[in-house]
UniProtKB/TrEMBL annotation:
GO terms for biological process: formation of cytoplasmic translation initiation complex. It holds the Pfam family eIF-3c_N. GO terms for cellular component: cytoplasmic stress granule; eukaryotic 43S preinitiation complex; eukaryotic 48S preinitiation complex; eukaryotic translation initiation factor 3 complex, eIF3e; eukaryotic translation initiation factor 3 complex, eIF3m; multi-eIF complex. Residues 16-56, 71-82 have a biased composition (Acidic residues). Keywords: Coiled coil, Cytoplasm, Initiation factor, Protein biosynthesis. This is Eukaryotic translation initiation factor 3 subunit C. Residues 178-212 form a coiled coil. Component of the eukaryotic translation initiation factor 3 (eIF-3) complex. GO terms for molecular function: RNA binding; translation initiation factor activity; translation initiation factor binding. The gene is NIP1. Residues 1-10, 824-838, 854-867 have a biased composition (Gly residues). It comes from Talaromyces stipitatus (strain ATCC 10500 / CBS 375.48 / QM 6759 / NRRL 1006). Residues 1-84, 818-867 are annotated as: Disordered.
């Protein structure tokens, strides 16, 4: 209580003067108080015991005597009043910590313990940062680092003369100090030279007492021409520590940039303030080197805003500013060809002077232009992923793709110019990365859109710039442009980039109705065999390309090829995931939040999507044209093995047939299924009307042509279905009857019937003289014979399964045994008839035939080539 009720002016003055220091030192006092509490715990317990015993011996007071003072109490209060509390300021405590660290370094120098010296040297520099925030560099620090450098040089010289080696810990500590002290002492070289000239006089000099200046929030200053200041429109200037106005000059640009670069990645860093500072540095910069350095740091800091915040993508405002600054950086580099931004260049460490570029020489600046344009591309993609595609904001944001494509092309031209002087491997890799990015912005667009994009881009680029890979004249021919970009990557790249270039070219060809060339390129690339070894994004591109080939085959009227190609994607029921157009969230999913986040990052922007409803409609329509005749064939021939081409279509058809009441079709899927039922019943006109009424066909390029093709296919498949269904009930059938029934030409009917007879799908003969079809009745199998055929089929299936299992288990041993025995030995499946080919119902091999009456072999796309 006496602390708050002291009389006299001196105590009040000291308490008021020390109040600020007490608040500033609260954190350090709390740490010390925790240590003191643990040490004084026992003393407090002893004092409490003595006081309790004295209180028991002392007679208790009653009545008015309770307010009288005893003799012992008087002496205790007088001692408390005479006691003086010493409160140290934060600056004094930090100086004491610095001095203790210096003493530890000096003691370690005496015994040559470089491990301790390295640790304490790092601690010394950390303590210095706190001290320099509120004052100049203390001279004891200058003395410590100067003596440490001298001691280090002596130790190294002694090692060279004597040849005696230190232990591993001391050697590691000496190397660490050796690497850091040279760079550290460079900033204090002037003070170190003063100390070495007169060590005693330097330490005896009294440091000038610092005048504490109250920090004003905003200080009005008058701008001068001698030193540029950071001032706003109202005439106010930014005030730093000690109340001094921050001044930026061309000579101090590199120092400020080094401070900003060293603060990257640290917590509590105000990056917006750093951006404002660098914008002011741009106004001050005079030389191209200064401008390039500021632009490189400024663009990188803008990208750091996204990583430091909770946002998943860069804001449109910051993206546009970064893109504008990137364009200005390219402009500076194009004007000054003797300055090159190179990833493997060495950093300029002297911040006091600028590097000088002699005539004919090239100055290399560390940085990556390609990484910047790739980051711009990625940030625009993330932004489009998080915007609702059905709003005007998405269309407005998509307009920034023009500026991005211009930046990509200018980057390509810049890297091409660098490659003319130095054809090193890193330059070629950078050029490949830019070209593949440019190709990925083109491959999924129609030629008309690409032509407009290219024309606008070349108009925005200076006329003096020209490309050797894709000249200005090549913009008019878009297919030739895509072919040129792909051929360049085929020649100079490998691995993932080459595979992606191949897939982009195939996608572009399929999009522009060139099915056969796209199919041949896909088969020759063998990507379907090796695609599992690539990354996820390349697998997504492969799936998109496969789907586009199937759509192209359907538009060309190649129904079997379209169904065979689309079956892998559409038959799985996971079109959204496989094409990266959405995520299917299941109720009992085991996907972790990290995996779900990665899946969302891989999603494609909406303008790159393939219409899934149209894709499903095409797949079901193709399956209908194959499944309906097949079902009619198997129903009329029960001895034939039941085959299924599309399980998805069969499942939907069975579900529709189980319905008690079936109303009119409500969506695309119902329309196709109802059309299939009418086709199976023989009403091809109703099937054509119902199929053409689906509105999804209007989304295709030429809907009238597509509807005419569908009507023709329904007529042909209706004829085949009729023949499969009613062949057992006819002996002869006139061709003219079929012509009138299905409204086909006589030549077309004869062609279809001849193809069915040649492929053993129809047991009949064509009588051209009488213009009729003569059906032949085959020998019906007895019940025993049918069971024998079924048993033989099951036995062959079991034999094939056993051989496949044996081959998987003993593949390595069989190959080794075959090499030892020679070419005639049996190994794996090669012993059975020379390795005869086998195939399933969907991908036939050997002598199996498809319902369409043609033979095919191979994989997903190999079925499109005749055996």
């Amino acid at each position: 209580m006496s602390r708050f009720f002291h009389g006299g002016g001196s105590d009040s003055e000291t308490s008021s003067s020390d109040e600020e220091e007490l608040y500033s030192d609260r954190e350090e006092e709390e740490e010390q108080s925790e240590e003191e509490e643990s040490s004084d715990e026992y003393s407090e317990e002893e004092d409490s015991e003595e006081e309790s015993s004295e209180d028991e011996d002392r007679p208790k007071k009653t009545g008015a005597n309770i307010f009288l003072k005893d003799e012992g109490e008087d002496t205790d209060e007088s001692e408390d009043e005479d006691r003086v509390t010493v409160v140290k300021s934060a600056k004094d405590k930090r100086l004491e910590e610095l001095e203790s660290t210096v003493k530890l370094i000096e003691n370690a120098e005496k015994i040559g313990d470089w491990a301790v010296i390295s640790t304490e040297f790092d601690k010394l520099n950390r303590q210095l940062l706190k001290i320099t925030q509120s004052g100049p560099t203390p001279k004891i620090y200058i003395k410590a680092i100067a003596d440490l450098e001298d001691f280090m040089n002596e130790t190294i010289a002694k090692q060279k003369t004597t040849g005696k080696k230190m232990n591993a810990s001391n050697t590691k500590g000496l190397n660490a100090v050796r690497q850091r002290i040279k760079k550290n002492n460079k900033d204090y070289q002037a003070e170190i030279d003063k100390y070495r000239e007169d060590k005693d006089g330097y330490m005896e000099a009294v440091e000038a007492e610092e005048v504490k200046i109250e920090k004003p929030s905003r200080l009005r200053v008058t701008p001068t021409l001698d030193a540029l200041t950071i001032a706003d429109d109202e005439g106010f200037s930014t005030v730093g520590r000690h109340g001094k106005t921050l001044q930026y000059t061309p000579e101090s640009i590199l120092k400020h940039l080094r401070i900003i670069v060293e603060s990257r990645g640290k917590k509590n860093t105000d990056r917006l303030e750093q951006i404002r500072t660098m914008e002011k540095l741009l106004e001050v910069s005079q030389t191209p080197y200064q401008q390039i350095r500021v632009y490189l740091t400024l663009i990188a800091t803008r990208f750091d805003l996204t990583s430091s915040s909770t946002a998943n993508h860069m804001s449109p405002e910051q993206w546009k500013l970064a893109e504008g600054e990137f364009s200005k950086l390219l402009g500076v580099l194009e004007e000054n060809r003797n300055h090159i931004v190179f990833e493997g260049a060495e950093e300029w460490e002297d911040d006091d002077k600028l590097p000088q570029v002699a005539e004919g020489e090239v100055l290399r600046i560390p940085g990556s232009i390609v990484s910047f344009v790739e980051r711009l591309d990625d940030e625009l993609t993330r932004s489009l992923q998080h915007i609702d595609p059905h709003t005007a904001e998405y269309i407005e944001r998509l307009g920034d793709e023009q500026a991005l494509y211009t930046a990509l092309l200018r980057t390509q031209l810049y890297v091409e110019e660098l490659g003319k002087t130095d054809k090193s491997e890193p330059r070629q890799d950078s050029l490949n990365r830019v070209v593949i990015r440019r190709l990925e912005h083109v491959y999924f667009k129609p030629s008309q859109v690409v032509s407009i994009l290219e024309d606008a881009t070349w108009k925005a680029i200076p006329q003096k710039l020209e490309s050797t890979i894709t000249p200005r004249s090549s913009t008019s021919d878009v297919p030739a442009l895509v072919q040129t970009l792909c051929n360049y990557l085929f020649r100079y790249s490998d691995g993932i980039i080459r595979a992606r270039a191949m897939l982009c070219q195939i996608y572009f060809l399929a999009l522009h109705e060139n099915y056969y060339r796209a199919r041949d390129l896909m088969l020759m690339s063998h990507l379907s065999e090796n695609i599992a070894n690539f990354d996820v994004s390349t697998q997504i591109l492969f799936n998109r390309t496969l789907v586009q080939i199937g759509l192209c085959a359907f538009r060309a009227g190649l129904i079997y090829e379209a169904q065979n190609t689309l079956s892998d994607i559409c038959g799985s029921g996971r079109q959204k995931e496989l094409l990266a157009q959405g995520i299917i969230l299941q109720r009992y999913s085991t996907v972790s939040p990290e995996q779900e986040k990665l899946e969302r990052q891989r999603q494609l922007p909406f303008h790159m999507h393939i219409n899934l409803e149209l894709l499903e409609c095409i797949y079901l329509t193709s399956s209908m044209f194959l499944e309906v005749p097949l079902m009619a064939q198997t129903s009329s021939s029960p001895e034939m093995k039941r085959r299924v081409i599309s399980k998805t279509f069969r499942r939907m058809l069975d579900y529709n047939e189980r319905q008690v009441f079936t109303g009119p079709p409500e969506n695309t899927r119902d329309g196709v299924i109802m059309s299939a039922k009418f086709l199976a019943a023989g009403d091809w006109k109703k099937a054509t009307e119902l199929l053409n009424s689906i509105k999804i066909w209007d989304l295709m390029a030429q809907p009238d042509k597509i509807k005419a093709m569908l009507a023709e296919q329904i007529q042909e498949e209706g004829l085949r279905t009729y023949l499969f269904t009613y062949a057992p009930f006819y002996d002869t059938l006139s061709v003219s009857t079929l012509v009138n029934m299905f409204e086909l030409s006589e030549k077309k009917v004869s062609s279809i019937v001849s193809r069915m007879i040649s492929h053993d799908e129809l047991a009949a003969a064509l009588d051209q003289v009488n213009d009729a079809i003569v059906f032949t009745k085959g020998v019906e199998l007895s019940r025993l014979q049918s069971q024998i055929v079924t048993l033989a089929d099951k036995s062959m299936s079991l034999l094939e399964a056993n051989e496949k299992t044996l081959e998987q288990r003993t593949q390595g041993m069989a190959n080794a045994f075959q090499r030892e025995q020679g070419p005639g030995a049996r190994g794996g499946r090669g012993g059975r008839g020379g390795g005869q080919a086998r195939g399933g119902a969907r991908f036939p091999g050997g002598q199996q035939r498809r319902p369409g009456g043609q033979q095919f072999g191979g994989g997903a796309l190999g079925g499109a080539i005749k055996a």
